[in-house]
Specification:
The protein is α/β, with parallel strands linked by helices and about 180 residues long. It has one domain: Pyruvate-ferredoxin oxidoreductase, PFOR, domain III (Pyruvate-ferredoxin Oxidoreductase, domain 3). It contains five helices and seven strands. A seven-stranded mixed beta sheet has the order 2-3-1-4-5-6-7, with helices on one face. A hairpin with an 8-residue loop joins strand 2 and strand 3. Helix 1 packs across helix 3. The chain is globular.
């Protein structure tokens, strides 16, 4: 079983992105679920959620305390909340940022880092800074846990328009670093 924690801000599409990943996994014959965690936060407030993907039935319905992957849709959250808490020793970290790998202060638990400027891609393709569908492309490339084909198909069904273009563009542009447990 793979466990994922999503971090973003209200209005960035954290919940929709997680649903698209889960739906794609289920369509591929896997078991998956998403547990959103948000309240009455306003647009721009931190939100997060949890997801699980497995080849076997998932009975666990708790929060994710030791994620295999952490997805951050807004790099300002790095200094606002503890996004790395519990990340496994071989953790995958995916972030929406225009920064370089050397500008990020990543902990040693990060084995793989995936950096993509999903905000710029979203503005370029859909005309708005909603990075969720671009982040899906980075997730697919960094993890290979679901297929790009299913994610793009589900993105088209849910959003239509240029969103699957944003997914493909991020898949093509994401920079993936093998850090061997820290940079």
């Amino acid at each position: 079983m793979k466990e994922i924690r999503f971090h973003g801000r209200g209005g960035q599409g954290v919940v929709k992105a997680a649903h698209l990943i889960v739906d794609s996994a289920v369509q591929e014959g896997k078991f998956a679920h998403f547990i959103p965690f948000f309240g009455v936060e306003r647009k721009g407030s931190p939100v997060f959620g949890y997801g699980r993907i497995s080849d076997e039935k998932i009975d666990l319905k708790t929060q994710v305390y030791k994620p295999h992957c952490v997805i951050v849709m807004d790099d300002t959250l790095l200094e606002a909340i503890p996004v790395f808490d519990g990340l496994r020793e071989d953790g995958i970290f995916i972030i929406n940022t225009a920064k370089t790998i050397n500008e990020l202060n990543l902990p040693k638990t990060v084995k793989t880092a995936a950096l993509v400027d999903a905000s710029a891609i979203a503005i370029d393709t859909i005309g708005r800074n909603i990075p969720n569908t671009a982040m899906l492309g980075a997730f697919v490339k960094a993890t290979n846990w679901v297929s790009l084909e299913h994610v793009k198909k589900n993105t088209d069904l849910l959003f239509g328009g240029q969103n699957s273009v944003a997914t493909q563009k991020a898949y093509d542009e994401v920079k993936i670093y093998d850090l061997q447990g820290g940079k």
